[in-house]
Amino acid sequence: MGVMTWPGGEAIVTNLSSFVGWGRKYSAWPMPFATACCGIEYMSTMASHYDQGRFGWERPSFSPRQADLMLVIGTIGLKMAPVLKRVYEQMTEPKWVISMGACASSGGMFDTYSVIQGIDTLFPVDIYVPGCPPRPEMLIMAYMKLQEKIQSQGFLEYKP
After folding, report:
1. Pair 74, 34: CB distance under 8 Å
2. Mean pLDDT of the chain
3. Using an 8 Å Cβ cutoff, are 55 and 140 in contact?
4. How far apart are the C-alpha atoms of 110 and 114, rounded to whole Å?
5. Which residues of 65-90 are buried (b: 16+ CB within 10 A; e: fewer)?
6. For a designed S-S bond to 17, which of 86, 120, 143, 155 qualifies (C-beta 3.0 to 4.6 A apart)?
7. CA of 150: how far to CAs of 92, 99, 157, in Å?
8. Residue 55 DSSP symbol
9. CB neighbourhood size of 2 (10 A)
10. Distance CA 50, CA 148 (A)
């Protein structure tokens, strides 16, 4: 985006794709899907100390039809997998996914038949946040990386 000045004031010059990407990156509506101990760290990220509202994601949505960002937080069991996949399918386009914690990303220490070994076996994941549990700063950094990705996707180039 460029800024042009003339005697009457200033104007921002950009293209539609950059403008829509800028708007999307600051208006994500996250839907937390917390199942285990990483949910406690997510709650601290939601608290006032970290002020996630400055990144544009202060309004959590607990309805998949209103959300465009899913945060999968914690262990996903085999019986929960179809529910999680259905929730993902009900989300609006464009949609993004952050996998928070070792259990959501790779099954963590639960290498058993009853635990999904990474949610990327169910649907695509945009950002992985490692740790057991990851610190709130790591989730904020992951969201900033997702904002960069959303901005670079543009308007017409979006591919799920």
Report:
1. yes
2. 84
3. yes
4. 9
5. eebbbbbbbbbbeeebeeebeebbee
6. 155
7. 15, 16, 11
8. G
9. 7
10. 20
